[in-house]
Amino acid sequence: MKQSAEVSRAPRVLSIHRGDALKFVDSHPSEPGKGVRVATFLGPDDGATHLSIAIVELEPGGHITGHRHPFEESFFVLEGNPLLAVADHNYALSPQDFGFVPYAVGHAWSNPSDARVRMLRVHAPQPRPIDGRGTWGVFEAPETQVPTQGEAVDELDPAKPYVGHFDQTDMAPPGSISMPGYHGANVQNVQIRMMVDDLLGTRHHAMFIVQFTPVVVDDAPLKTAKEHFHPFEETYYLLSGRTRAFCDGKEDLAGVGDLVFAPVGASHGFAALGTEPLCWIEVQSPTPPASGGFTFHNDWASHTNIG
For residue range 203-250, what is the model confidence (pLDDT) as tens digits? Predict the structure, then answer.
């Protein structure tokens, strides 16, 4: 049968997942332990192929037993002071600490404090059953004990891998974007601080801080990130400020605690609103190619389209 040259393409679109709509599950199988609950922000039911994003909370006295899984995990501490055991090291973490759990490495958590712990958690590639067993690809790591004490993060110590700390003083002055996959002026007035990437040992994803200072031109907020698309998934968890998000002629707003998701091929751009800096945790999976990873619509505006 002769096929038509016309191809129906359902456009991939940007989506915003509201932080105030999260639903927490106690005793979630992805985090075996006590006093722990998980709220899934993004997964396969939301159109994601590579990423699984969640908020994990540990109540005072709670713990997550030693386990491992056939995918990477990264985290960013939003609240509280958890202890982490990973790769024969125990760490005492604080807000704005971050880290990485490599493929198949045992790890465990505890919260010995009187305050709740809250973390943003990333899995890449997405968890799945292994050999028909379980649902989240979680396996026992009995050699990894629940930590009762730990050392503070020291990014200058090569004997303390897989963890780091974000501080506002880490940010370089605002400028044009310069990162794997694209260097150029289509994203301006931006500050980036890489956190979890190949230098820390990842192979499947990257996590970093992005910050924009709002700019108003002719009484309108400047679109500091011009509309574009790329061959990898991207999420943005807002830590401060507000943004107007653009996608193929449509607009939406996002604020603190919301998660914005750009699937593979979804068009997206952003404008920072108000006076407070727009700051988010950005995650990419798979990791971008060294070049040609971003396609900006305006770069092609002067070229004649013939198909």
Answer: 999 999 999 999 887 777 778 899 999 999 999 999 999 999 999 999
Read off the pLDDT of residues 111-120 as tens digits, 9 standing for 90 and up: 999 999 999 9
DSSP designation for 71? S
Q: Are 114 and 60 in contact (CB under 8 A)?
A: yes
What does the block give as tokens for 98? Answer: 């971050």
Contact indicator for 241, 190 with CB cutoff of 8 Å: no
Six-digit token string for 267: 């068009």
Distance in angstroms (rounded) separating the CA atoms of residues 95 and 26: 23
Task: Tell me if 134 sits within 8 A of 67, measured CB to CB.
Answer: no
Tell me the C-alpha distance between 130 and 193, whole Å.
Answer: 35
Torsion, Cα 22 70 157 206, to 10 degrees, reads -60
Residue 188 pLDDT more than 80? yes
Could you tell me if 181 and 293 are in contact, meaning their C-beta atoms sit under 8 angstroms apart? yes
Q: Position of tokens 């940007």? A: 14
Cα separation, 142 vs 269, whole angstroms: 46
Query: For residue 278, what are its two tokens?
Result: 């727009």
Domains, in order of start, for the chain = 15-155 (2.60.120.10), 168-299 (2.60.120.10)
3-state secondary structure of 206: strand
Q: Judge contact between 97 and 163, C-beta under 8 A.
A: yes
**Which residues are bridge partners to 72 per DSSP?**
124
Distance between CA atoms of 146 and 65, rounded to whole angstroms?
6
In this structure, what token pair is assigned to residue 156?
Answer: 């200058």
Residue with tokens 């996002």: 254
Distance CA 111, CA 81 (A): 7
**DSSP symbol at 128:** -
CA dist 76 and 41 (Å) reads: 14
Which residues are 37's β-sheet partners?
A: 26, 57
What's the first-to-final CA gap in the chain, in angstroms? 23
